[in-house]
Specification:
Number of domains: 1
Order of helices and strands: HHHHH
Structural class: mainly alpha
Number of helices: 5
Largest sheet: none
Radius of gyration: 16 Å
Helix content: over 70%
Distance between the termini: 37 Å
Length: about 90
């Protein structure tokens, strides 16, 4: 993979498909970040920087997941807005 192949791939997609693809890449990156040894805030103890990094990754994961449901026209699989906003604030304050 190189910048040219990524550009070629993205250029072959419609704007909607490109948006969905980039959202999915971002979502999967959040999942892969968990595989690098720091899966939860509880596992890292008191390290402030690591706690913030894990927390930001979890927020991104939740945001990209919800966005993916909207982009795929699967709003029924998404959390209702009032529930989703509560999840975001609970995650941010963990």
């Amino acid at each position: 993979m190189n910048p040219e192949s990524v550009a070629q791939w993205l250029n072959a997609l419609s704007l909607v498909e490109r948006t969905k693809a980039l959202n999915l890449v971002g979502f999967r990156l959040t999942t892969h970040a968990r595989d690098y040894g720091v899966a939860s805030v509880e596992a890292i103890g008191e390290s402030s920087a690591l706690r913030k990094l894990v927390g930001m990754n979890e927020l991104q994961h939740k945001l990209l997941s919800q966005t993916g449901h909207y982009l795929d026209d699967q709003e029924r699989r998404a959390y209702p807005v009032n529930v989703f906003s509560q999840i975001l604030f609970q995650t941010a304050n963990t």
